[in-house]
Amino acid sequence: MSIAQNLQSISTSLPKEVTLVAVSKTKPLGDLQAAYAAGQRVFGENKIQEMTEKWEHLPKDISWHMIGHVQSNKVKYMAPYVSLIHGVDRLSLLDEINKQAAKNHRTIDCLLQVHIAQEESKFGFDEQELRDAFATNAFASYPNINIVGLMGMASFTTDTAQIKTEFTHLKSVFDSVKNTPASHVDLHILSMGMSGDYKMAIACGSTMVRIGSSIFGNR
Ligand SMILES: *Cc1c(COP(=O)(O)O)cnc(C)c1O
C-alpha cells in the first residue's frame, strides 16, 4: 500500500474529533511530500534538527509537532515555527521554551508528558509531580506558553490489558486535572496512541494519535 492509501484508510477510521499526527521521523522528504499531497498537514518528528531541515524544505502550512525528548539547548531552532511540543517532561524546560517563544513573539502550545509505562526508560512527570505543578500554579510565570494537554506512551508490550490499564490511568489523570483553574492552562488535548495501540488509545479517550510506521512503513 502507498503512503496515500495508508493515510486514507487510517484517517477515515478515526473519529472526527481525533487528530492524526503523521510521524515522519527518519523518513525522506519525498515521503512527507507524498503525505502532504494526500492532504496531511500535521507531522511529528522526534529530533529538532531533523524537523527544522524538513520545515525549511516543505510548504509552510504544515503544523510541526515535536514528539520526542527535548534538549534545552535546541529549543531555539524550533521556536520560530513549532506548533505543538508533546514532550515537556520537566518544569525547567518551560523556562527555555518561554524564553525562546518570547524572542520570536510567539506563544507556544505544549503538552505535559506523563510517565505511565512500566519501563523506567520513558520520560515524563509522575502523577504526583503533575498534581503538584497544577496545585502550585507552576505555569503562571510562563506568559509565552500555553499548556494545552497531556501526552503519554504505554509500555512496549504485547499485553493489551496492561496497555489498556495505562491509557485508562492517563485519561483519569487528565480528567482530574482538566478543570483545575490555572493560568496559561487550557487542557483539551490528550495525546496517546501509536501504530500498534491507537485503537485502544481512542477507546480510552485519546484525542490525538501519533502514527508513523502504519503510514510510512517500518523505520
Ligand atoms: C516514533 C514515535 C511514534 C510513532 O510510532 P509508530 O509505532 O511508528 O507509529 C509515536 N510517538 C512517539 C513519541 C514516537 O517517538
Summarize this structure briefly.
It is built from nine helices and eight strands. By secondary structure, the protein is of the alpha/beta class. It has an eight-stranded parallel β-sheet.
Keywords, separated by commas or semicolons:
binds pyridoxal-5'-phosphate, alpha/beta, 219 residues
What do you see in this structure?
The longest helix has 19 residues, at 160-178. By secondary structure, this protein is an alpha/beta fold. It is globular. It has helices at residues 3-13, 29-37, 48-57, 75-78, 91-103, 127-135, 160-178, 198-203, 213-216, and strands at 19-23, 42-45, 63-66, 84-88, 108-114, 145-152, 185-191, 208-211. Helix 4 (75-78) links the parallel strand 3 (63-66) and strand 4. Strands 7-6-5-4-3-2-1-8 form an 8-stranded parallel β-sheet. The chain has 9 helices and 8 strands. The site of pyridoxal-5'-phosphate (PLP) has 14 residues, from strand 8 and helix 9.
What is the approximate shape? globular
Structural class: alpha/beta
Helicity range:
25-40%
Helical run tally = 9
Order of helices and strands: HEHEHEHEHEHEHEHEH
How large a portion of the residues is in β-strands, by DSSP E?
15-25%
Quick check: average pLDDT?
Answer: 96
Bound molecules: pyridoxal-5'-phosphate
End-to-end distance, in Å?
Answer: 16 Å
Instruction: Catalogue the unreliable spans.
Output: none
